[in-house]
UniProtKB/TrEMBL annotation:
It is found in: Membrane. The chain crosses the membrane at residues 32-55, 67-86, 106-129, 149-166, 193-211, 232-256. Pfam families: 7tm_1. Its main location: membrane. One of its GO terms (cellular component) is membrane. GO terms for molecular function: G protein-coupled receptor activity. Keywords: G-protein coupled receptor, Membrane, Receptor, Transducer, Transmembrane, Transmembrane helix. It comes from the Eukaryota. This is 12-(S)-hydroxy-5,8,10,14-eicosatetraenoic acid receptor-like. It is a multi-pass membrane protein. PROSITE patterns: G_PROTEIN_RECEP_F1_1 (PS00237), G_PROTEIN_RECEP_F1_2 (PS50262). Residues 46-293 form the G-protein coupled receptors family 1 profile domain. The lineage of its organism: Eukaryota, Metazoa, Chordata, Craniata, Vertebrata. Belongs to the G-protein coupled receptor 1 family.
Length: 345
């Protein structure tokens, strides 16, 4: 076992977390714990309010927003993990010294990441087909009409997530340790493959969809550009989520594994702090995803504003309100060429 720099914490005894799970710098991790507490304090009410809108105001099952609702569910899995993770960091541990808790945390975090990425990419692909291949059969639009598809997607994620339960994944980065067995090495290798492919492949798809939609926007006439601009904002919001939440930690992961395999302990103590810090940054996806909801469906945005924003902000954010004949409410926005009415359920 490669030793690490001590931090004033007592040495771990048999049955507790090995030394490489101690934090290399207690000040850094206490700071990160406060960041996670802040993410939890902001993320819990935000996602609760989003959940309320989706169920009671927007009625997601009637508005073909099942995939957006699944992203909310994935974010709740993440928010639930933040207090536990912050507790461990404040106590000088990068993971729980209870193997059951450690595995459950890893399972939840892997599942959240996989589900968030899967449904975000599906939304981007849907916009791609609606814009670039308009008129052709859009298989994503067919999938959106069937809630059972979402259940299938969650079930397909399990084979990629369950390996976190098979063998203790020491400090989320055991690959390269000298005491690995063949089984342990295969399990860790599979985890690393999953970790990188679930980021890199979707990002390539996302970049492709974005480039094609932007090119399509440039070729369209002025009268057709409003819908295309909205599609660009959707995919660009997903790009922002990827660029802030997923790509930095993925790059840091590559550096961390490289340093570990070279057995440069001093460098590893520094890189591991950067990696854990960027992982904490990745948890902000529970705060950024609502931006995607707003760009994907203007009806959700208007319902959220009308429910939670003060009156003086509503007047600024929503141009005017008109009540339709069925007793519902619509938001009317006026441009130089046309007027668009967006329903609020």
């Amino acid at each position: 076992m490669i030793s690490t720099v001590t931090t004033g914490q007592p040495s771990m005894t048999m049955g507790q977390a090995p030394d490489n799970c101690n934090v290399p710098n207690i000040v850094t991790y206490k700071t990160l714990s406060w960041v996670m507490i802040g993410e939890f304090v902001l993320g819990l009410p935000l996602n609760l309010s989003v959940l309320y809108i989706f169920i009671f105001r927007f009625k997601f099952w009637k508005n073909k927003s099942v995939f957006l609702f699944n992203i909310v569910v994935a974010d709740f899995l993440l928010v639930a993990c933040l207090p536990v993770k912050a507790f461990h960091y404040r106590n000088g541990l990068r993971r729980s010294d209870d193997n059951t808790v450690c595995k459950m945390m890893l399972f939840m975090l892997f599942l959240n990441r996989g589900a968030s990425i899967a449904f975000l990419i599906i939304l981007s692909v849907d916009r791609y087909f609606n814009v670039v291949h308009l008129g052709r059969r859009n298989f994503v639009k067919v999938l959106k009409k069937s809630p059972q598809i979402s259940i299938i997607i969650w079930l397909l994620l399990l084979p990629l997530t369950i390996p976190t339960m098979l063998k203790t994944f020491e400090c989320c980065n055991s690959h390269g340790r000298t005491n690995e067995t063949s089984f342990h090495d295969v399990t860790d290798t599979f985890r690393e493959i999953v970790f990188f492919t679930q980021i890199l492949i979707p990002f390539i798809i996302l970049v492709y969809c974005t480039v094609r939609i932007v090119n399509r926007l440039r070729k369209k006439t002025v009268g057709e550009k409003t819908k295309l601009r909205r599609a660009v904002w959707v995919v660009m919001s997903v790009v922002v989520v990827f660029s802030i939440c997923f790509l930095p930690s993925t790059i840091a992961r590559v550096v961390l594994l490289s340093v570990r395999l070279l057995e440069k302990q001093d460098a590893e103590n520094i890189v591991v702090q950067i990696y854990d810090g960027l992982m904490v940054l990745s948890y902000t996806d529970c705060l950024l995803d609502p931006l995607v909801y707003c760009f994907c469906n203007s009806g959700f945005k208007d319902a959220y504003i009308s429910t939670f924003c003060p009156k003086f902000l509503q007047e600024r954010l929503l141009t005017s309100y008109t009540v339709n004949g069925t007793g519902g409410m619509t938001t009317t926005t006026t441009s130089a060429t046309r007027t668009n009415s967006l329903p609020i359920l």
